[in-house]
Amino acid sequence: MRTKKTRSSAEVSSPFTALAARLSTWRNAGRPGRRIPEALWHAAVELAAAHGLSPASSRLKLNYYQLQRRLNSGRPVPKGPVVPPGFVTLTAPPLSLATAGVDGGSLELVRPSGCRITLRWPGARPQELLALVQEFLHS
Predict the structure, then answer these.
(1) Number of domains the chain is built from
(2) Are residues 104 and 57 in the same domain?
(3) Among 5, 57, 68, 104, which is least packed by CB within 10 angstroms?
């Protein structure tokens, strides 16, 4: 007895089915070498974003790397507000004369946001840098 292969309900209702049919119709309607219309690419990128790049490229028979490039070009890179880097000048407390002969050092602080300050102050003691550090952390 001969059996007939049927599609499962998951294949029939696949989110790729309608777009795959549209792409197939477009491919069969014209000459080879034409560029895929932007509307079809846009729909493919939306499916790739929702269901994954590999399943979308294989089920829609699209070039993986072209789809990946289009998918990545439409995504915003930062999710938070973009703050341009700035330069801040802080006034230093007066240096005491008692530290004039002491060798200097440097101190570098980095905020979680990536903001960084490097202090190079010959002869400074930690107590003298405290005001600058506090200003940096609270600004």
Answers:
(1) 2
(2) no
(3) 5
